[in-house]
Amino acid sequence: MKIIILGAGQVGGTLAENLVGENNDITVVDTNGERLRTLQDKFDLRVVQGHGSHPRVLREAGADDADMLVAVTSSDETNMVACQVAYSLFNTPNRIARIRSPDYVRDADKLFHSDAVPIDHLIAPEQLVIDNIYRLIEYPGALQVVNFAEGKVSLAVVKAYYGGPLIGNALSTMREHMPHIDTRVAAIFRHDRPIRPQGSTIVEAGDEVFFIAASQHIRAVMSELQRLEKPYKRIMLVGGGNIGAGLARRLEKDYSVKLIERNQHRAAELAEKLQNTIVFFGDASIKNCWPKNISIKLICLLPSPTMTKPISCPPCLPNVWVRKR
């Protein structure tokens, strides 16, 4: 397959590295000549220096007969225009773009289709992070939850603990415990080694169990593997960037949400935009900036790329999650 990748940064470079070894003809486009030379020295691929949204540059990169364009530059607008040019001038059959701004992502269904901005597949990394954190909040105790079929089916990863009815029993007994729920255990990891699950497999405490079920039955299946935690009600978010703001907007409909933001202008902006979130202005790396007498079940640390100082959490908080930069 002939693939053009726009952007030689971390995402574009990693993508090129993974695709170049699969008998693909890869061309990478970027304005940074040094990045391109580094990639060309490491891998068997072509490079073109220039703006990826310019027709001349795309033509030089081989857009006339390319099978796919993947636009992952740091500019949403460049990625969108590149997909439009590839569609209008070169009829490139597959167009993928990374879009980070929540203003675009929020209206993705209306914006990105063949009659508007012709992007076939949208990569919204910050939205993926928001969705992932939201699902973990929705299912306390889960290690990971991934939705399929428009959210109707989920794959969940849960660690088995003593107290779960299935611990010490064979997987086949799950059907006896839940006769009206369809679920399938896809994999089990024990001591970091995979085990092929069979009906006779005994579930042990400490196992990481991967199972598939209807989303409405996830908590019921989890209850077989561990004592269910009480749902979170009060949540503190640290960091009001795109992820922090997006997560607050998602959570505030069903949870009591507080948010700390160290930039005064940004804090004021979020206080205006968020309907039911209490926004505090302060530096979370300073202990005495935390609100007094807080009653919080969960805190999510969402540091921005520019945050350099460590964050000091109140010792009273029982659950602390950190999103690594």
TrEMBL record:
One Gene Ontology MF term: potassium ion transmembrane transporter activity
UniProt entry keywords in alphabetical sequence: Ion transport, Membrane, NAD, Potassium, Potassium transport, Transport
Domain of life: Bacteria
Domain RCK N-terminal: 1-123
Domain RCK C-terminal: 143-227
Keyword Membrane annotated: yes
Main location: membrane
Membrane topology: Peripheral membrane protein
Cellular component aspect of the GO annotation: plasma membrane
Classification via Pfam families: TrkA_C, TrkA_N
PROSITE patterns documented for this protein: RCK_C, RCK_N
Subcellular localization(s) per the UniProt record: Cell inner membrane
NCBIfam families noted in UniProt: PRK09496.1-1, PRK09496.1-2, PRK09496.1-4
Protein name (record): Trk system potassium uptake protein TrkA
